[in-house]
Amino acid sequence: GGTTRDLRALLTRLRAPKTINMHDLCIVGGGGLYSKWFLPLNNKLIKSIKIPLVLYGIGYNRDFGGERLSKTQIRSIVLLNKHARLSSVRDVDTQQFLRNINLENVDVIGDPAIFLETKKVEKTTSCRSRMRIGINIAYHGWKLQSYFTQRVIMAYVKTCKFLIQNWGARIVYLKHTPGEDMVIKALKESLPIHVADYCPAYSLAYRFNRKLPTLPIKIGKCRPYELKHVYSTLDLVIGMHLHSAIFAFGNRVPMINVAYNLKNYSFMKFIHQGDKVVRADRIDSEGLKKMIMCALDNSAEIKREFERLKAKLCKKQENFLKKIQSII
Description:
By secondary structure, the chain is an alpha/beta fold.
C-alpha cells in the first residue's frame, strides 16, 4: 500500500539516483507498471536519471470494478515515457492506451515471460497416458475477489468433475502466489488435485522484508523456471492469472482464461484467443465446458498458431534488443 511505497521511497531517496547513474543503462520492466498499484512514480527520481532509460514490455492493468487512473498518475506515465529513450509494451491494447495520452513511439513486443527458460521437474512426467488439465484461481487481492471467488471455485469444481468422469483427466493446480493456499484447500474438499507448488508460503520474514526491503533477510524464492516446465506437460490450462496464459502460450498449450482484469482480455485477444476468455463474475460450468471442448477439438491448430505467433514475437523482441544495443 501507500505506506510501504512511501517507506521505500524514504529508504532509497538519497542514494537511488547516484546508484542508477553509475551504470550504462537503466531498464524498467514489469507487466503491471501502468496501474494504480505503482502510480504515480517518483517523478523527481525519473528526472534525475542521466543514463539511457528503456521501458521493456510494460502492460496496462485495471481490475474490473476498479478506478481509472487519475490525472496525476497519467502525468507520471507521460513523464516516464518522454524521459525514456525507448519504450515497449506487452500488447496492442497497452499501446493504444499510450496513444490515447499522446505517446506514439512505442513498440509492441509481447511479454518477456513468454520466452522464460524452463527447468525440468522429473515428477511431472508420470501419468502421461492421462489427460492433464492445469488450473489456478487468482487470490491476491483483485478488486471483486470477495464477491466472486466462490462462484469461480464452484464452476471449476463442476467442470473438473466432468473432465475426470468423462476423460479420466488428472487435475494439476498451478500455484502462482502464496495466497492461493486457501483456494487450494477449498478445491481439495471436492477434487483430487495435484499441486505444483513452486511459490514459497508467506512468512514473518517475508512480510518483514516487504516493509524493510533494504535489510538482508533471506526468504524462500519462487521458482518460475520449474513452474513453466509443469505447463509444458499439460494438455489444457484453465487459469485466472495473466501469467498462467503467458506460460501456457510460451509452451504452446491451449488455454481458457478467467478474467478479473482488463489485461486478461488484452493478452488473450493479442494471441488470437479472445473467444476463450470469460469474466470471473459471469463464469458458469456449462459455458466453461463449451470453451474447453472448443479448445481441445482445435488443439493441434491452436498449437501451430501459437508457434507461428511466438516466432513473430521473438523477432520483435530481438529487434527491440538491437535498438537497445544501439543506444548504449
